[in-house]
User: Fold Bone morphogenetic protein 6 from Cyphomyrmex costatus.
Amino acid sequence: MELDSTEAATSWLEYGLENHGLELEFLHDSRPTRREVSHATLNVFTMSEPGSGRRKRSTPEELMPLHKGRRSRCKGDNNKKCCRHELTVMFKDLKGFEFIVYPKGFDAGYCKGRCPPRYNPAHHHALLQSLLWKEDRKRVPKPCCAPSKLDQLMIVYFDENQSTQLKVSYWKNIQVLECACS
Assistant:
C-alpha cells in the first residue's frame, strides 16, 4: 500500500501549521478497526531550494532498513510491485526428472514486479542504484525484482547403479523464499 502525504506536508509548510505528526486509521464498514502492521517503511522524498542551508548527512542504515526476513508474498492479485509468486513444479511433467521419487512436486516460487525507488532494496547498492535511476534514467537501469533468499530441496531418487537402493541429495538454491529489488 502506498500513501502520498505530500498534500498534508505542503499545507504544514505553506500555511505555517504546526506539525502534529501523521496518524493512520484503518476503517472496516466505516468503523475504526485495529490492524497489525509489520515491516512498515516510510520513504521521504524532499526537494530543497538552493541556498537553504546544509543538510544532515545520513548513514546507509538510516536511509534504508535492510531487507530482513520479509516473505514478500504478493498480497492480492493487483499487486504490481516486486513480490514472490507461487510456482508449483511437478517433476513427472519435466523431461529428464522422472527418476525423482520424492517429492513429487514443490513450490519453487518466482519473483516478479516493479521496483520503484527505495522499494524493498536487497542491499545498499540496490538502494543507491534506485536513487540514481530516479535522478537520471538514462545513466543507470532500475533495480530488478529477484530472489533475495533461496532454500534447498531434499530429493529422493533410485541409485543408478543399484536400482533397489534409494539415495538422498540436497539441491541448493532451488526454492525462492523471498524477493527484493536488486
